[in-house]
Amino acid sequence: MATLTQNSVTDILDRENLLTLARERAGLSDFGDLWFLEPMDQYVAASNSEGRLTPAGRASTTEVIVKGLVSRLRMVDDIKRNPEILDETVEVAGIILGLPRTGSTIFQRLLASAPGMTGLRWYEAQNFAPFPGEERGNPVERRDYAQAMIDGWLQLSPELASIHPLDPDAPDEEILVLGQMFVSTMIEGMNFVPSFARWLNGYDQSKGHEDLKTILKYLQWQDQTRRGRKWILKSPSNLPYAEVAAKAFPDALLIMTHRDPLQTVPSYVSMQAALYKLSATLTDHEVGAFWFPRLVEWMRLFEDARGRIGEDRFIDIDYREVGRDPMAQAQRVLSRIGIPIDARLEEVLSEFLAGNKREQRPMHDYSLERFGLNEEAIKREFADYRARYTD
User: Fold this and answer.
1) CA 172, CA 175: separation in Å to the nearest integer?
2) N or C terminus: fewer CB in 10 A for the chain?
3) Does some domain include residue 1?
4) Does the pLDDT of residue 274 top 70, yes or no?
């Protein structure tokens, strides 16, 4: 596995340098459709002008960009040599969305554990193309890469262990892949780029989701045990751009998880503070000052979109009900997407729940005060949402 040397990382991020590094690492030159260059330029400019990147953060940001470009190069090459990849039939049966910190991670993993289901694995989200020489269906080096990433993150930001369960083989968010095409909120979640976030609101992200469809086919081709299984996608960051995901996967059930913003807002701001520690220098109050209004904006964008999408596409899942009876809530969703509710399902879900209890991880400690947040402001900004879903 190639890594960047200090000499290969310049003081500023530069598009042509990044593309060259990717070509050199992959030994390939064809990126396919170059639509991604426009959002890439916007992201690079924002990172350089306002990202407050530390030297280590600049190196890690460079590595994230380059490895995504390398995966793209390798996928384009693999499709040329194996055009049957595009013949794979992928069924995205459900997409989980909702405010961050609403229990969506564990709920996705619970659903994906059911017979006949699958999800995008964390190690695949980091490198969706096989490494050179990788035995098909045996991605040992990609798993090792992902585990090394997790170990490095936890060394720099130990509190992540209590915030988000990191596991190379567990299902995780497709925005990690979309972010490698510079069209997801993963970017603003990993780097401080407010101007990019504003720009993304007005950008047509549909080409990213078209590429995502191809990537899911590619992943299924790599692991053919997935053929015939239903995919469950998930990202709270789908929330502000729900129509893009809904249009890309018109048969998918939209699963909206709900929890009181008095808990979710400070919890998510705490997560962002932990992630920014990996790359930038910001105070806790600066993180809160950006993310509170951004979450309000996410919800308002979603509320406008939900009516246009249509209520028949949605199922609402209350965080409190998942805590009381996760089996029943999982069965509500699985029955809607055509998974048989039988003894075998109950056995598999019970086994998953026994091995994934919240108390098996450190507790997540956060407060409003630490981030300069105000309870009355949260109540005011999310009044309609709280009245509809969480009161």
Assistant:
1) 9
2) C
3) no
4) yes
